[in-house]
Predict the 3D structure of the following.
Amino acid sequence: MNSPSPIDSLTPRELEILRFAASRLGDKEIAQELNLSPRTVQNHLHRAYEKLGVSNRIQAARLLSDHYSGESIAMSPPLPIKADRGVSEAPVGLLEDGKAPGGALYRRYIALNEWRRPRKMGGSVLWLILLWALAWLMIAVVGASLINPVLEMIHSLA
């Protein structure tokens, strides 16, 4: 008689989240897909890890694959990043604990896309800088030319 598989002990939600995780989606992507919070997704994944006796997504995905196919299937490696592609086009891999590398600040930086590059000097920005410099220069010249008359007026009052 067949012994029950650890996969059979998973709840339907844990199994669903585990399938998404096996397809290399991050916690936030799974959460958006299922209308859950990323923290809830993490909780379901960790409960599933405990039930399956594994410690990360890769092991859980392999166990899930073994269960459905009856044989171990090697997981495909992530796609290599070509040298001509930018940072924002690189696929974000997951670490062993299921979190994306870099943290929140890095993800916000990547989300900026073309805004993260400094603006090119030219056009209206260059003219604006030159006009401000000219205005401050004029203020300095006018101020310097008024020093002598003001000092003479103060001297005549004394």
Notes: The mean pLDDT is 77. Residues 124-157 form the longest helix (34 residues). DSSP finds six helices and no strands in the chain. Residues 120-158 form one domain.
